[in-house]
Amino acid sequence: MSPLPLPSHNRTIEKIDLFLRKQLLSEKIAGIVFRPRAGIQTGNNTWLEPDLFFLTSKTESRFRTTNPTTADLVVEVLSDSTREYDKKTKADTYAALKVRELWLVDPTSKTLEVRENQTGTTSWSRNVLYTWEETMESPVLGISVDLRFLED
């Protein structure tokens, strides 16, 4: 069982969740954002629970009666106790599941790493590290994101 997240971890997830939902509405991006206890199924009895994940309407339509086995965008907020697992094991699993875009948000270093799978293979084709003072590009959402919204 994973340790209970710290309040700062939960606040960061709340900020990202609110931001994503507002962006989806204002940019008219069709899809749905899932939060834990929603998961991505990796086998009959195994799954991953990202902090947040997004399915475009097209992807979501494939999983109306089954659990998702992939996602268009996954967000993981790193904690001291799970940082290495999230950046290595969990990220490699998302790549193997052909997740299109992964955000690794690190509140300690105030960075956001974007890993992209632009080729539809089982590995990341591009990694970009941003600070919270920069504007990132999200290929899946097709928008620029001013990361200052993550500041306290």
Order of helices and strands: HEEEEHEHEEEEE
Mean pLDDT: 91
Strand order of the largest sheet: 1-4-5-6-7-8
- For the record, the CATH class is Alpha Beta
Proper CATH architecture: Alpha-Beta Complex
Specify the helix fraction band: 25-40%
Rg (C-alpha, Å): 14 Å
What number of domains? Answer: 1
Structural class: alpha+beta
CATH topology: tt1808, chain A
User: What's the assembly state of these chains?
Assistant: single chain
CATH-level-4 superfamily name = tt1808, chain A
Q: What kind of sheet is the major sheet? A: 6 strands, mixed
- Give the strand tally: 10
Strand content: 25-35%
Determine the N-to-C terminus distance: 29 Å
The number of distinct helices, counting runs of at least 4 residues, comes to: 3
What coarse outline follows from CA principal-axis ratios?
Answer: globular
Could you walk me through the main structural features you see in this protein, from its secondary elements to its overall organization?
- The chain has 152 residues and is of the alpha+beta class.
- The chain has one domain (25-150): tt1808, chain A, CATH 3.90.1570.10.
- The chain contains three helices and ten strands; from the N terminus they run H-E-E-E-E-H-E-H-E-E-E-E-E.
- It has helices spanning 7-26, 57-62, 83-96, and strands at residues 31-34, 40-43, 46-48, 52-56, 73-77, 101-106, 111-116, 126-131, 135-138, 143-146.
- The strands form three sheets. A six-stranded mixed beta sheet has the order 1-4-5-6-7-8, sandwiched between helices.
- The longest helix has 20 residues, at 7-26.
